[in-house]
Amino acid sequence: MDSADQFRFTHLPHAAPTPAARRAELLADPGFGRVFTDHMAVVRYKEGQGWHNPTIEARAPISLDPAAAVLHYAQEIFEGMKAYRAADGAVVMFRPDANARRFRESAERMAMAPVPDALFLQAVRELVRTDRDWIPEGENASLYLRPFMIASEAFLGVKPSSEYLFIVIASPVGAYFSAGAVTVWVSEDYTRAAPGGTGAAKCGGNYAASLLAQREAKAHGCDQVLFLDAAEHRWIEEMGGMNIFFVMDDSTLVTPPLGTILPGITRDTILTLARDRGLTVREDAYSIDQCYQDAAAGRLKEVFACGTAAVVTPIGRLRGRRGEIVIGSGNGADPVTETLRTALIGIQRGKAPDPHGWVQRVG
Hints:
It holds the Pfam family Aminotran_4. The protein has two domains: 4-173, D-amino Acid Aminotransferase, Chain A, domain 1 (2-Layer Sandwich), CATH 3.30.470; 182-348, D-amino Acid Aminotransferase, subunit A, domain 2 (D-amino Acid Aminotransferase, Chain A, domain 2, Alpha-Beta Barrel), CATH 3.20.10. It is 26% helix and 29% strand. The protein has eight helices and 18 strands. Strand 9 (182-187), helix 5 (204-219) and strand 10 form a beta-alpha-beta unit.
């Protein structure tokens, strides 16, 4: 029943859209994830019927039965992606097909009904077209898109749900971090994921499990947390909501291999951009002990985080039980990090050539 004809969205009228003057006030300083657009995309799934009734409607609270499976068994996944205003004024998205694919893979891992890529992409585009006036101006500004899916069947048995809600909401945002390098806490008490677990899926439970460690990081004056592996508490994996790269003194980039970490789309983009520039890239296990030794010996020159929200953010310090190390200049003015960040933003904003066809215009 999931034919292309069923993906024609019905646009329901909004009774009270935000006045233009009020929208301009909100867009002047939206922060991150606090301001939301007028509409949302909604598609429903029922076993035996498939995905049906796609709509663009007024953003509003969701009505759920108290026995809905998501509330008891955490069957839930989400994505993070952005729409931008390009240099020529066009509205564009960056690699949305990769988000669609990862969303489908997350659904499969969580035993949920996968959303066809075409439906995912159409839902996102329809919402962006409808709320395009909410895309803010500015170098660090964008429209952050949050597609998510929840299990909505009212049933208390432990089994995959037979009903789902797929929804896309949008939030105009500025920079995720303030300017400059961030400080990261190395967590040695908590782990994010384990082999055979859900680390590679973008599900809410992974992030819930990271919050206590993130609170610990804040208590030590840090902006983010870095997790080690669950088995040996030795190998660097990823941060609370983003991937991590290490730049050595010969400009080689090292990043943890996939498996228990999220296959970040920005991570994959950075790997490609680095190789395009002739840099050596290694997806290798890298221990926290080796990291400290390399920093002390001057072999480790730069460290940065990357993700949809963070883009490319320099890390100036690692802090933990074994003390603190300063990375490179400590202030984020590091050449490889800045080169890759500039290249990524240039492609996303239409200011640089796009040889890989990553940017898609929204009609």
